[in-house]
């Protein structure tokens, strides 16, 4: 059952998470829902892949090794090449505090884990319909 | 005469002695007091540090618990949606059990975390303007699966003249979800009614959840607001839960400058009311 047609016009989602099971779970469901997917395991990798691939949306876990999600988001939002890509902050850490900190870093949406795959996909679709598809 | 003077001299001597002794005792007591004060001060600091460490520990713990739970709930959700192919009815039933138990575990973890955040003063307020009517509908929709299963008559009667509220929408929602979930949990037959009225003189919105459930004896009514307490907290208690729900609601209501009240009697059902000011002030 290959639901994903994987044609190049399907939006590319970059999923950034250091926890493999969560990253692959979201990747699998996004593909099932028809998206193309790229993965990164830390903030630095996320920034590099974002510059190289220009995804339509970035799903960013905040607690990450090497470079955390806040810093990675700040860098992406500072660069004209990646500034307009919506970033969804994903966190499971309650004392990471509040969505305001994520907003301050430039995140466009904020989702707390546990987040069911279909809820996450809905959030991605919501963001994509809010920005122009050409972005 | 002579004797008298001698006596006076002796008395003076005794007086001086007594005075010196008194001074020594006062000094000793003052010193003791200072030592005790210092000890108390140090203990206060230690307690504060211990309490902060406990909060941090619980927060970390909750993160550690949520990470695997996220994967459990997520993969279950994907299997139930048929991502890996169609399921037999028995497989679907087993997965639904994993799903509902996983969600229950999540509720418990979230409750413990909420208490931790409130106690650590790290529960942020997000104030906005919203309509209670929509919020109540949202709450009922969210609990719809449980309402349907319960076979109780659940209805909402909202005053058409309710003004918009300036408060923390998510927290008001959390309180109402909790009150309605409790009503569903402790009512086996009859009805549940959600009502909302606006009290003009005090600028207060009163949202009540009235059920025809088992009710609470007045002597236990204080207890239900306390942490980890249920009317029956014994190991053989008939109703599960952390006993944190209402104590969280009480704290959340206070954060919103409001309060919760309870009217009930054993076997007569219960009415829980949230008294919410029209405007919550940011403190």
How far the N terminus sits from the C terminus of chain A, by CA atoms, comes to 31 Å
> Which structural class matches the secondary elements of chain A?
alpha/beta
Give the overall shape of chain A, derived from the CA principal axes.
globular
Strand order of the largest sheet of chain B: 2-4-5-7-6
Order of helices and strands of chain A: EHEHEHEHEH
- Can you list the strand order of the major beta sheet of chain A? 2-1-3-4-5
SSE blueprint and pairings:
The complex is a heterodimer of chains A (135) and B (283).
Chain A: E1 12-16, H1 20-32, E2 36-40, H2 43-53, E3 57-61, H3 69-78, E4 87-91, H4 99-105, E5 109-112, H5 117-130
Parallel strand pairs in A: 1-2, 1-3, 3-4, 4-5
Helix pairs in contact in A: 1-5, 2-3
Chain B: H1 2-80, H2 89-119, E1 127-130, H3 132-142, H4 144-150, E2 153-158, E3 165-168, H5 169-186, E4 191-199, E5 204-211, H6 245-255, E6 259-264, E7 270-277
Helix pairs in contact in B: 1-2, 2-6, 3-5, 5-6
């Amino acid at each position: 059952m290959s639901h994903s047609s994987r044609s190049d016009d399907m939006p590319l989602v970059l999923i950034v998470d250091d926890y493999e099971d969560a990253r692959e779970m979201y990747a699998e469901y996004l593909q099932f829902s028809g998206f193309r997917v790229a993965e990164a395991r830390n903030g630095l990798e996320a920034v590099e892949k974002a510059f190289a691939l220009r995804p339509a949306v970035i799903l960013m876990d905040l607690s990450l090794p090497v470079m955390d999600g806040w810093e990675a988001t700040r860098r992406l939002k500072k660069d004209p090449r990646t500034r307009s890509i919506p970033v969804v902050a994903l966190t499971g850490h309650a004392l990471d505090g509040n969505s305001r900190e994520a907003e301050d870093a430039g995140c466009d949406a904020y989702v707390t884990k546990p987040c069911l795959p279909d809820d996450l996909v809905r959030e991605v679709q919501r963001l994509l319909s809010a920005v122009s598809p050409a972005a | 005469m002579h004797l008298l003077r001698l006596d006076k001299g002796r008395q003076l001597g005794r007086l001086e002695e007594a005075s010196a002794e008194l001074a020594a005792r006062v000094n000793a007591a003052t010193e003791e007091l200072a030592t005790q004060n210092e000890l108390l001060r140090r203990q206060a600091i230690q307690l504060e540090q211990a309490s902060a460490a406990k909060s941090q520990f619980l927060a970390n713990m909750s993160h550690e618990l949520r990470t695997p739970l996220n994967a459990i709930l997520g993969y279950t959700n994907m299997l139930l949606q048929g991502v890996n192919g169609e399921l037999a009815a028995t497989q679907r039933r087993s997965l639904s059990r994993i799903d509902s138990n996983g969600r229950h575990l999540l509720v418990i973890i979230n409750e413990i975390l909420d208490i931790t955040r409130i106690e650590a003063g790290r529960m942020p307020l997000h104030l906005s303007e919203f309509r209670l009517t929509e919020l109540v509908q949202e709450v009922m929709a969210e609990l719809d699966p449980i309402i349907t299963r319960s076979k109780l008559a659940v209805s909402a009667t909202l005053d058409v003249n309710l003004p918009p509220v300036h408060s923390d929408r998510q927290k008001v929602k959390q309180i109402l979800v909790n009150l309605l979930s409790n009503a569903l949990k402790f009512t086996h037959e009859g009805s549940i009614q959600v009502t909302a009225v606006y009290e003009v003189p005090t600028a207060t919105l009163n949202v009540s959840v009235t059920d025809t459930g088992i009710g609470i004896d007045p002597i236990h009514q204080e207890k239900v607001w306390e942490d980890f307490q249920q009317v029956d907290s014994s190991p053989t208690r008939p109703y599960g839960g952390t006993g944190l729900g209402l104590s969280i609601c009480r704290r959340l209501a206070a954060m919103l400058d409001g309060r919760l009240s309870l009217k009930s009697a054993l076997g007569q059902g219960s009415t829980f009311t949230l008294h919410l000011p029209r405007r919550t002030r940011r403190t």
